[in-house]
Amino acid sequence: MKYNFLKPVGILSLSLSILSCGNSSETKDQMDDLSVNMENKKNSLLKEWEGPYQGVPAFDEMNLEDLKPAMREAMEKHLEEIDEIANQKEPATFENTIAEMERAGKMIDRVYTYYGIWSSNLSTEEFREIQQELSPELSEYSSKIKQNEKLFQRIKAVYDNSQEKSLDSQKQRVDDLVYKNFEMSGANLNKEDKKRYAEINKELAELYTKFSNNVLHDEENYVTFLDDSQLDGLPESYVSSAKKAAKEIGKKDAYVVTNTRSSMDPFLTYSEERDLREKVWKKYYSRGDNGDKYDNNKIITKILKLRDERVELMGYDNYAEWRLQNRMAKNPENAMDLLMQVWPKAIARVDEEVADMQKIADKNADNITIKPWDYRYYAEKVRQAKYNLDSDEVKQYLVLDNLEEAIFYVAGRLFDFNFKEITDGSVPVFHKDVKVFEVTNKTTGDHVGLFYLDPYARKGKRSGAWATTYRSYTSFDGETNVLASNNSNFVKGNEGEPILVSWDDATTFFHEFGHALHFLSADVKYPTLNGGVRDYTEFQSQLLERWLSTDEVINRFLKHYKTGEPMPKELIAKIKKASTFNQGFGSTEFLASAIMDMKFHTTDPDKIGNPSEFEKKTLDKLGMPDELVMRHRTPHFGHVFSGEGYATGYYGYLWADVLTADASEAFAEAEGGFYDEELADKLVKYLFAPRNAIEPSEAYRKFRGRDAKIDALMRDRGFSVD
What we know:
Elements lengths: L9 H4 L12 H17 L24 H20 L7 H10 L2 H15 L4 H22 L2 H16 L4 H16 L6 H31 L2 E3 L9 H13 L6 E3 L3 H10 L3 H12 L11 H17 L5 H5 L8 H32 L11 H13 L3 H5 L4 H16 L1 E5 L13 E7 L5 E10 L9 E6 L10 E9 L12 H18 L13 H11 L6 H7 L11 H9 L5 H20 L8 H11 L16 H4 L10 H18 L7 H12 L7 H9 L5 H7 L6
Parallel strand pairs: 5-7
Antiparallel strand pairs: 1-2, 3-4, 4-5, 6-7
Pfam family, one: TOP_N
Enzyme class: hydrolase
Keywords: Hydrolase, Metal-binding, Metalloprotease, Protease, Zinc
């Protein structure tokens, strides 16, 4: 997954609830308060953040035993705050209702930060048991706030008044977002339907946790071991990493292909052992689909039925209709229309790519028909034949440490940020591999925030790459700095060896840093405005990917890991010439996932049956090529079934890609190119700093002077423009 909030941001991202304080006597209340205060002193997760930089998370004091009591205490504390807001006697105003809701919940924000670290970065069997226990409690907590009648009536009163006499721009945006969020969460339902709505949310929370943990189980347990006779074709750097990974799990005389994309992808690209490629491919794409107790198909069926039942309570035809009403696409028809505009061109390109691969296989007398586990391997052969471009040769110039310098260089040129590593131990980290940088404004020297970088794979860390914040910028009750984090899964080599990454992984590294820059450049008053519209929040990060291939980055930072020599101009020319290579594969595997996301959520769940079978039947009807599969097959499609952030929202990457391609052309046409100062200022002012303070379409028009056009995307991928 490329983007993930580990903790709630403002009152919109939090699934809130309200809990009655009961009829306890004043004496008992005082005793309880004393008990709680004593417990807080012992529980590190509840403490206010101390130390430099406005206080930082006490990652060095994390104790899993503290998690359940901390989360329960934090929920209760927040619910008391909300209860006080809901039961005010004064008429509802923005200041005494919406602003106070923005102000509440600081303790649970802190606890959620630690919860998120355990969930994504340091998961263990013990934590997963706690997570399974807490997830329904968190859901119940959420439902009680979202369905609090007194609270909603105050929110509605403020909203209704604002429709007659509008507030200033940021207040109005917050007010609109809060009201819509509560409305979409069933606040207008009758008492009986609210009860069922809450029950559904509780069931879903448990299912999402189980889904995620099942996938993590398969990633950790279904690995492939190799011996010295099975390494043909694999680059030296990969062999070294595979050796180290095997040693870490107690296999000193073996090599291991872990069940993650960062390990699977290069193996399928280079290994000459076709039987092993098939074995590795099947393990990766069958995660959550092995017919054992960790199989996710039945869980998905339950999720789809519960989602459908829940939106029916509010009068919607299907989940997608409900979900997309406040996205840029507005409805599933618009989203599907975009996907289907690109689909025919993508699968036609796959046919061309497979034909090229089959020619090489036939020429080599390999006596095979291209299968999914052959695609990457023979695509690499085609790349070398067509463009004389060897991915492993490119990799020699993609050193992770140099890429780190490259992203900071880009941030300095475009955002006027400076990054300096903190090495004195003043900022605690949750693992020794995590690095922390202070971010300052280059011109003024003003402190902006901290950037945590957690780059390496390890047991208990979920696969993929993502970004998150531990604290967001607001100027609400005084300015807060930003604590932003990027997390990746690069495989370490042996001590002292440079870490070489693929061009795709380097692109993802830039992508996640784009999210971090979005966090760090925020200039909003209210916490809620740090949220985002899902089919827009990927745009900023996808746009930053384009700076990897700028001449300034290539010439300064893409240097050979042994000689230190910059990448030769001939190799650069080959890379740029091959920029649209394999777009059939990349586009089709993504589109298949996005289309299935829509199909699952616009189809009557009773007509779906087994999700894996529905996936196959649906894609067969659409003409899905036999030689590849969805990027994320349904049983491990965490974007969609481990929560609701991307459910019916996976198309958003393509929606954002339209914006990205169009904005990239603006830079390409600018006098100063991708480092044009005037355009960079507009980039920060309109596309990064406002976060969700401006409606996304309006923000883009302010930057570009018009709406984005799909033609740029087609040109970008080398597809014909009709």
